[in-house]
Amino acid sequence: MLNVASYLARIGYTGPTIPKADTLRAIHRAHLLTVPFENLDIARATKIVCEEDAFLRKIVDRHRGGFCYELNGAFAALLRGLGFEVTLLSARVPREDGTETPEFDHMTLRVDLDEPWLADVGFGDCFLEPLRLQTHAEQLQDGQKFRIREEGKSCHVERAQPDGSWKGEYTFSLISRRLEEFAPMCHYHQTSPESPFTRKRICSRATREGRITLADRKLIITRLGNREEKVLESEEEWQAPLQKYFQIVL
User: Percent of the chain scored above 70 by pLDDT?
Assistant: First the structure.
């Protein structure tokens, strides 16, 4: 199903495609600026099948977005099609009570070049370019600092906060995974009332100046650090920014 040229056109990428770090960074950023993180099919009870071909059809052919399994699953296929060496990794997300979600709650990617990288186009508001898979080194991008902290057999992606503290984004291990291993959690997130994805609709993507998000009936636009919110009073009023900012018509 993979058509590399169509996928690159979908994300508006026209640069070099040689498998090297500069290419990875540029394609990663282009993906996040064009393909939204969204769960709209879950709200419409449209089943999401944990298969690479289904991800590609949705994102490339139908110009939609998706959540982590879809976005990173499709992105992994694109990178492999360009000659990159990609490994699927399982990740867990911290809860407010200090515990973590189960294994396979999130999918992230390891990309091996001269050095290993952590790539992720499916976590929403996070790093725009891949992180070097180095532990404890602070990595600055777009005015934000990230680091990967090693603890036992786990690695923690953390982001620096304004007060100087570090907030955990997610925890992952370096064990190679197969796509089918993520299928049970992909099903869970579509069906369980405990899943955050069954509780509200969301559609969000990065912009060059910040981020645009539709969260249920609220439109949130962040531009150069300034945040604007607008409450949308009707379904028709919700559909308009969905088409304007994400080019999605349901």
Answer: 100
